[in-house]
Description:
Blueprint: H1 7-20, H2 26-29, E1 31-39, H3 48-56, E2 60-66, E3 69-78, E4 81-92, E5 97-109, E6 112-118, E7 129-136, E8 140-145, E9 150-155, H4 162-165
Antiparallel strand pairs: 1-2, 1-9, 2-3, 3-4, 4-5, 5-6, 5-7, 7-8, 8-9
Amino acid sequence: MALRPDADRLFVLEQKARQSGTGLLAADLQGCWRLEMVWPKGSRRAAAFSGWMLRGLAARLEIGSDAEGLLLNNAVNLGTIELRFRGRGWLQGSRPLLQFSFDQVHLSIAGFTLLRRSLPQPPPKRLPFFALIHRDPSGWLAARGRGGGLALWCLADGVAIAANMGPTAS
């Protein structure tokens, strides 16, 4: 990954995205994004412990697509234990927002599924989203979540995500 942007650069990019949009398309978002840094709502200081912990858990956002649109997985690992949320996403508006809804949760150990449950659909006005800020060609993505926190992800090199995307129950 190229030099990570600092909070000041991200805030400048965020203002630009609010004014002019990002021009990002669904194809720009596809891949396996490892969470690198988070900033709490209203803070210009990264949450060092949270970032360290989420990197240690291999927190990632996997974005793929099928004929119906975007497929999203949000996953963490603790050794061979994996917790994975699956669902669908779509781009909305000119900025755009990446809105999504997870409809399944999976818990597995060493690839063996222990738990697979359907999740209820949140009310339309409470859907989670990421307000996209910037996707850099060098391999990082920044966005602000519904709760106001800022996240920075790095694109994982050579990671095949199709096997884990799977169909989601709608």
